[in-house]
Amino acid sequence: MTLTAFIIIGITILVCAFIQGATGMGFAMIAAPVVTLLDPSLIPVAILLLMIPLNGYIGFRERTAIDWRGVKWVSIGRFAGTFLGLWILFVVNLQQLSLLIGWSTVLAAAVALVAPAFDPNRTGLVAVGLITGITETSTGVGGPPLALAFQHKAAPVLRSTVALCFLVGEVISVIVLAVSGKFTLGTLIATAALLPFLAVGSWASRFVHHRLDGPLLRYIVLGFAVVSGVVVIIQAW
């Protein structure tokens, strides 16, 4: 990775950590396409590793608002989806993975923009977890299904519950990927070097998160995600 690419990725991680800390979503949808363009070897391990401390911080910060029922059923589905996502990683090459990331980002963001309000039942939450497990383990992007499930909840509930769902799922995915030999020393070093950017963005979000219900930033995040996904698709072709 060149110094220029590292700086661009670092700034992206900082901005994404701030957005996710403020709104409860957006980190992987924005970061994964940018990282894929500049260094696809970091996908999905670096994204998953960076999101563990980020979501741990967000969940702890607003722990009193967590929807524990939602976390339970999403996590059950998430566990099953992890293994399907791992299978995808083993059967696709980097170009195919880039296309998968691009299309999944665009489609997920588009669905999140137009989906009507709904309150998912147990089956719906398990399905959301299953889809999240597949997409996050294979591409690092798992936010849109969770955002769909909780987007009409109060902002603290959305942020804290999605963060905890992410955290549980990311730990599962990281363990499975590590056992499967998907970790490399280069990826771990690059991830460690990006942690200061993550810390600054997360810390900055604490000054604005309580003032936001998220609609404006939600549209900005999803719009940027669509653009990023399209760029990744074009580059992969």
TrEMBL record:
The answer on whether this UniProt entry bears the keyword Cell membrane reads yes
Question: Per UniProt, which keywords does this protein have?
Answer: Cell membrane, Membrane, Transmembrane, Transmembrane helix, Transport
Extract the Pfam families matched here: TauE
Q: Name one GO cellular component term.
A: plasma membrane
Give compartment(s). Cell membrane
User: Topology versus the membrane, per the UniProt entry?
Assistant: Multi-pass membrane protein
Span-the-membrane segments of this chain are: 6-30, 42-60, 72-92, 99-118, 124-150, 157-179, 185-204, 216-236
Location, primary (coarse class): membrane
At the top level, the lineage of the source is Bacteria
Query: Record's family?
Result: Belongs to the 4-toluene sulfonate uptake permease (TSUP) (TC 2.A.102) family.
- Its recorded name reads Probable membrane transporter protein
Q: Which organism is it from?
A: Microbacterium esteraromaticum
